[in-house]
Design brief:
It is a single chain. The protein is of the alpha/beta class. It is 20% helix and 26% strand. It has helices at residues 31-40, 51-58, 117-126, 140-149, 162-170, and strands at 4-11, 46-49, 85-89, 101-102, 105-111, 129-132, 155-158, 176-181, 208-217, 221-230. Strands 1, 2, 3, 4, 5, 6, 7, 8, 9 and 10 form a 10-stranded mixed beta sheet that branches.
């Protein structure tokens, strides 16, 4: 079992997602406000991102203290009453959260077996939760299963960078894509897009979509919602 996953992103018309490269939007909202207001309309209290995106919320990179206790290598849920979640992948144990929430959303890290006991003890002391999802890397299929089974999450917003989004899409775990397109062309070579899947192009599309709805928003912005029908 897994949650129903909606990948929600704000992009240029050529799919780039680095909004700090964009010119000022005509008569529209700031890109961050546009992203947040459209995301909130879903009413979903859990969001998932990769390591790079989660780093923006983790705070300064403090040095780990030596763990003074043995740490069990099992899933750790620090707040059983949490109803809103900020979930991030961290296979190597580089996100040094010093508090248990991101603006009220309980922090959950998806880790691999190679993270240190010092790191796990640090997360426990910070009041954060973690789930083991692979030996060396985070297996997104295991992660989605545990997010549903351990945390009881039935609907999830995927809001990561292109690499992590691409990994989840390529694994066939995305149910819906919500793309808010601003009237901007980026065109930069190597600039991350909504989905970046490494390797040679597959013979068939990574996912076939069905348009469910679209809306015009102020400033020439258009919001599309697609259902993933195969992939």
């Amino acid at each position: 079992m897994k949650p129903y996953v909606i990948c929600h992103m704000c992009t240029t018309i050529d799919g780039r997602i680095l909004s700090n490269r964009w010119p000022r939007l005509p008569r529209g909202k700031d890109p961050g406000e546009l992203f947040e207001s459209t995301a909130e309309s879903f009413g979903i209290g859990a969001w998932l991102v990769g390591t790079t995106t989660m780093r923006e919320f983790a705070g300064r990179n403090v040095k780990l203290k030596k763990a003074r206790r043995r740490v069990e290598r099992t899933d750790h849920v620090a707040d059983r009453r949490a109803r809103r979640f900020a979930i991030g992948a961290d296979a190597k144990g580089v996100l040094r959260f010093q508090k248990a929430d991101v603006e009220g959303d309980h922090v959950v890290l998806l880790v691999s077996s190679r993270v240190s006991d010092d790191y796990l003890a640090h997360l426990q002391d910070a009041g954060a939760s973690y789930l083991f999802c692979g030996k060396r890397e985070v297996d997104v299929k295991v992660a989605l299963d545990k997010i549903h089974r351990v945390l009881g999450i039935h609907r999830l917003m995927l809001e990561g960078g292109g690499t992590f989004n691409g990994e989840v899409l390529h694994a066939g775990l995305v149910n819906e894509i919500s793309q808010v397109i601003v009237p901007v062309v980026d065109g930069g070579r190597g600039v991350t897009t909504i989905f970046d899947i490494p390797g040679d192009p597959p013979r068939k599309a990574a996912a076939a979509l069905r348009l469910e709805s679209y809306r015009r928003l102020p400033g020439g912005v258009i919001w599309f919602r697609y259902r993933v029908v195969s992939g």
